[in-house]
Design brief:
By secondary structure, the chain is of the alpha/beta class. It is 39% helix and 18% strand. Strands 9, 10, 11, 12, 13, 14 and 15 form a seven-stranded mixed beta sheet that branches. α1 packs across α9, α2 packs across α3 and α9 packs across α21. The radius of gyration is 36 Å and the shape is elongated. About 8% of the residues have low confidence.
Length: 709
């Protein structure tokens, strides 16, 4: 049984929201205010002059006592029709009359009368614990004066519902227009405050101020409180099954925690300046980016052409936030992938607010450097010239040669050792401040994070470009085009998502070296920091062990999963039948994941992706109340008990969802649960609660009876 007690002053909507709350949970409803009004009506009906200066309080108390003890009163607890009867006569409307409203405070202000009413209210509340009651033993919502402190101080949920005086007055005025009541809020407050306190919450009572909430919002707030209380009560009830069993410290920590995942930081995206790092190949751009960020974010190798996409990072220097963009090496008169890389670098310059041109001091001035300068001058952006690889003061002379570029003072730096970086960044921040506009945004941390994963050349970058509706990532037939994880905020149907395009995971990672090795490591890290993994397969090629290994990596990381079969439009009927047969055999481990067949290149069926993504993340976030979980496991255990092993039959004592993201369940049992039975439990949980698109983790803690001393 659950008891909900709601107190508060006039005009906060206690009755309306309490009845709605009781209906929502199938509970009984008790309007204690109606009980005071009914007593007032009864006194008036019995001829008692409540306007007399010398009111006979003892006579009123006896009259009220007879009203209850002699069986004259009957209060209905059906929230749809909370009738009030006096000697079988329905007086529900009469107790709302102006005459009763004008005298109810005089009756309720008599302390002995309040004591009689408190006893009657407690009797009605206690009656709902019976299976034969209106609620069938489920509980009751009781609202009115003193309910949280005197009548039901042990209620499972105690709420003080309040609102500002002017708001309550306006609501009562609206009720008066409907003939509901005519009493003045301030007068009611003054009269009632003589015998009860209802403007501040007592210890353990939750205050809900609904001044700026409508009835639906107020109801939602109370529903949340009641659901939490029901979950807590169910948790304690089922956890009691562990009494008498040996528990470890970890068990107690689990039982004391609620297992909820921490809320994500949801700060809004803030507009900042964009600083692009450009230069010809292998001058140390990515090394400089890592130095500015203070971590190895960009893949670095002593060979040209490692960076291919334009990759953005959130950065900060001396209290100034900005967006830092790393680019591939810029060259003119190139073809193929080098041309695509150069195009991305030019796009980065166009979108930037300021630019740092990095040149190689050890190599000296080249014709490519001069061509880049022409391109940069045409952009009209503030430009800083950084001469890299000047590792000590003896090499300062190397920077002098670059004065002839006409780009102003060259900054001699060493990205490898950090030399001169502070002066360069001070000048860069000044350049951003002088820019005409700030065109970048810090990445909002509240966005859902989606990683695009798969073996090389399955179409991850093509899908990213298709979703972004622009050539965001370099796409080429050459396998392994993407090296650095590329973060991109993409709007899908009016909602922003943070997509991460990752490098393809190689077949034998332990044999991979250099840039490919570090790209694979960053791909694993991208999966770990994502919430959802879109695992891509090339439908036009046979499904390989490498494909399945990539998929398993995402599943083992506990991410929500959507499987994407790309290039589906290239398949004939035989090819599609082949993949359907593979789905039933090779993908047995992830039959719970949604599958989307599409073409990243043409955009065919990419509109189906959003629904699958949302479904997977809802499942990934899902929590099952402890009471419902244990009741369900009790049902399946009774219908399909664990097989006998060695003359013993393991029994489930208690289960709880220890966490979500992904859903992880801990089962306490009297013995070892075989793998087949665990799979049966997982399958049953999915059939009952969904969990489509997310892995489920089930742990079993075996506990033995505590030995008697």
């Amino acid at each position: 049984m659950i008891t909900v007690a709601i107190d508060g002053p006039a005009g906060v909507g206690k009755s309306t929201v309490s009845k709605a709350l009781a209906k929502h949970f199938g509970l009984a409803y008790l309007d204690t205010g109606a009980m005071y009004r009914a007593c007032t009506w009864w006194c008036l009906d019995q001829g008692i002059d409540l306007d007399s200066v010398s009111v006979d309080e003892q006579h009123i108390t006896e009259t009220v006592g007879d009203f209850f003890t002699e069986g004259h009163a009957d209060f209905g607890v059906n929230p749809d029709n909370p009738t009030v009867l006096a000697d079988g006569k329905d007086i529900t409307e009469q107790i709302r009359s102006h005459e009763v409203s004008a005298h109810v405070s005089a009756v309720s202000g008599i302390i002995p009368v309040r004591n009689v009413l408190i006893a009657a209210q407690q009797a009605y509340i206690a009656a709902e614990s019976s299976k034969d009651s209106y609620s069938g033993g489920e509980g009751i919502v009781a609202e009115g004066r003193d309910i949280t402190t005197v009548v039901a101080p042990q209620a499972d949920v105690r709420v003080l519902l309040t609102a500002r005086e002017e708001v309550r007055a306006a609501r009562r005025a609206g009720q008066s227009a409907q003939g509901v009541g005519q009493d003045d809020v301030r007068a009611r407050d003054k009269a009632d405050s003589k015998v009860t306190s209802f403007l501040s919450a007592a210890d353990g009572v939750t205050t809900v101020d609904n001044s700026d909430m409508n009835a639906e919002q107020t109801l939602d707030a109370l529903i949340s409180l009641v659901e939490d209380a029901i979950e807590k009560k169910s948790y304690e009830e089922y956890a009691a099954n562990l009494n008498g069993y040996e528990l470890e410290d970890d068990d107690r920590d689990l039982l004391e925690s609620d297992g909820s995942a921490s809320d994500e930081d949801t700060r809004r995206s803030r507009q900042v300046g964009v600083l692009a790092i450009v230069g010809r190949p292998n001058v140390g751009k990515s090394t400089l980016v890592n130095r500015i960020l203070g971590r190895r974010a960009a893949v670095v190798e002593d060979t040209p052409g490692v960076t291919r996409d334009r990759v953005g990072y959130d950065a900060e220097w001396a209290g100034h936030d900005f967006r830092l963009v790393d680019t591939g090496g810029w060259e003119s008169d190139v073809e193929g992938i080098e041309s695509a890389i150069a195009s991305q670098a030019q796009v980065a310059v166009t979108l930037a607010d300021a630019v740092v041109l990095v040149v190689d001091g050890q190599v000296g001035l080249t014709a490519s450097d001069e061509r880049i300068v022409k391109m940069l001058r045409a952009s009209g952006k503030p430009i800083l010239l950084a001469v890299n690889k000047v590792d000590d003061s003896s090499g300062e002379y190397m920077a002098a040669e670059f004065w002839k570029l006409g780009m102003g003072e060259p900054y001699a730096i060493s990205a490898m050792h950090g030399r001169g970086i502070g002066e360069l960044l001070d000048a860069a921040i000044a350049g951003l401040a002088s820019a005409e506009a700030t065109s970048g945004y810090l990445t909002p941390t509240g966005l859902r994070r989606v990683a695009l994963v798969g073996r090389p050349n399955v179409g991850k970058s093509s899908l990213l470009n298709q979703l972004a509706h622009e050539e965001r990532a370099v796409v080429n037939e050459l396998a392994g085009t993407t090296r650095d994880p590329v973060d991109e905020v993409i709007d899908i149907a009016g909602e922003d998502w943070l997509f991460v395009d990752t490098a393809g995971i190689k077949r034998r990672m332990h044999k991979v070296s250099g840039a490919d090795y570090y790209s694979s490591l960053r791909t694993q890290a991208a999966i770990e920091r994502s919430e959802l993994a879109l695992v891509l397969f090339d439908s036009s090629q046979p499904i390989s062990d490498q494909d399945l290994k990539v998929m398993s990596q995402a599943v083992d990381a506990g991410r929500a999963i959507v499987l994407i079969f790309n290039k589906w439009d290239l398949l004939d009927d035989f090819g599609r039948q082949r993949l359907e047969r593979l789905w039933e055999t090779e993908f047995e481990r992830v039959t719970w994941a949604q599958r989307v067949n599409l073409s990243a290149l043409t955009g065919w069926h990419t509109n189906r992706l959003l629904s699958a993504m949302e479904t997977a993340l809802v499942s990934w976030d899902k929590r099952i109340p402890t009471g419902r979980l244990n009741a369900f496991l009790g049902q399946i255990q009774a219908a399909h008990p664990h097989p006998l092993r060695g003359g013993k039959q393991p029994r489930i004592l208690f289960a709880t969802q220890a966490s979500n993201r992904p859903p992880r369940f801990v089962i306490f049992a009297t013995g070892f649960l075989e793998h087949g039975y665990r799979r049966f439990i997982e399958r049953s949980l999915r059939e009952e609660f969904g969990f489509e698109g997310t892995p489920i983790q089930i742990s079993v803690n075996i506990r033995e009876k505590r030995r008697k001393k």
